[in-house]
Structures are given as structure tokens and as C-alpha cells.
Amino acid sequence: MVWLALLSGALAIAAALFVGGRFLMANFGQIRRTGLQAVIKAWLTVGILRPMLARLGRWLLPFITWNQRHRLTQLLLRSASTDLDYAQMFAARVLLSLLGLVIYLSAVGLGSLQGRALRAELLVDILLCTCLVAFFWWLPILWLKQRYRQRLIAIERSLPFFLDIVGLGLGSGQNLQASLQLACDHLSDGALKAEWLQTLSDIRTGVGRSEALRQMSLRIELVAMRQLLSALIQGEALGQRMAQIVEIYGAQQRAQRLMNAEKLALQAPVKMLFPLALFIFPCTFLVLGFPVVVQLFGLT
Predict the structure, then answer these.
(1) pLDDT tier at 299, thresholds 50, 70, 90
(2) HSE (CB half, 13 Å, CA atoms) of 225?
(3) Using CA atoms, how far apart are residues 177 and 170, in angstroms rounded to an integer?
(4) What is the pTM of this model?
């Protein structure tokens, strides 16, 4: 049995080395350009994980309700995770839930669960297992929402500079679409540039400008962006000067960014109270009070 185990381990190591060598030889050029870590991550995501999720999603498709499909589609759209669909995301939730169950059973042990004599202990184990499985079930949703919040923060930070470039283009005599394209050309890669490029692409494919702006407003739940898009739609309908609208909103966004910075600066002392009271003050009192205690009690 020992020799059989050693032979199986040697064959597994040889197979792993063979597959790894073929992978390195096939992707040598891409590894030199992007790095080994990026190539391995892309291979695991595109070559293994995504096909597995797609196949499992097709199997689980009858169990996905229409409400879940709509909700997952909206989250994927708002978080710019267009490389996934709702079936793959549902499959990821199922796999993570099973992973949480396996982790709990591995940590506790199935034999120990069967040997529980008290009903209270068994109920506690079931409750802990349910909480862990529920956490892993909601983990993809939390990840999508966190990614969406990061996109909103990035859009809010890039918006004043974007409006300044659009205002310069409108002031030089260009129309709104050309000014938006000019701003996208000078804007760094990010969520705001991706959204405006998608909107411009919709306009070029025949979608009306107002309708494309409304679709963008539905994708981005940001008050500043929705106000700007509503003003642009209303200005186009009423024939107002776009340069004046963009200039006003650009100044408003710069003032809002300054107010947000002042708000965060005023919140900093309040947020520092807890770590000061919990970590800094006890250490300070300990350093100052230790010599006093030594002198009072005559300790050497």
C-alpha cells in the first residue's frame, strides 16, 4: 500500500509538471508581456471557472425565478460585470454555499455532529452552519454591490474634470456629441469613461440622444449624474445652450467636492476617538503610572 501511494503521488506530480510545462510554453510570449500572475489568473477565470459556471448555470436555470433573474441582471449591469450573466452568478452562489457547508463539516466533523447528546448543542451547530452557508450565499451579491459603490465613487471623483473638458469643447463651437467624445479622449480609463463611451456608442447605432442619456441615468444611481443627464435632456428638448448648463453643473460639482472634503476632515477627529481611547490612552497611562506604582509600593 505504501508503494502504491508513492507511485500515485509520483504520477500526480509528473502530470502536474507536464501540464505546467505545456502551459508555460504555450503562453511564453503573453507571460513576458503581462506577467505570470496575470496569465494564471486569466487562465483560471476564463479557461476553468467561467465554463464551469456556465455549465452549472444551464443546469440550474429552471430553479431561478424571474425576480432573481431581474435582480441579478440589474446588479451585473450596474457593476459593469457584463462578462457574466445571471445564470453564472446564481451558479456561483450555489457553489459558494456548498463550499461553506463543506468547510463547516470539515471543521466540526460529521462524527461529532452525530455524537451530540444534547439537543441544544445540535441546534447551535445547525444555527452556525446555517449562518455560514447564508454568508457564502450572499457573498457574490455583496461583492457586486461593493463593486458598484466603488464605481459610483470613481464616477463622482472624475465628474468635475469631465465637465470642464466638455465645457471647453462646447465653448469652442463643437456640438454636444463631439464635446463628449473629446472629454472621453482626454479622460483616464475608469467607470465614467466606460459609461460615456457606451452612451456614445448607443447614439451612433441609432438610439436617440435623449433615450441614450435616459438609459445611462438608469445604470448610474448617482444624484449628481442624474441631475446632469436630466438637465441635458431638458436643455436639448427646449433648445437651451448646452455650454451654460455644463458650466453651471461643473462649478456645482467642484463646490460639492470641496464640501465633501471638509465633511471628511470634520469627521476625522470623531473617528479617532475610539482607537485613541482603546489603544493609545491605556498605553500612555501605563507608562506614566508604572513608576508611581513602583515608588508607592517600594518595588525593586
Answers:
(1) low
(2) 24
(3) 10
(4) 0.70
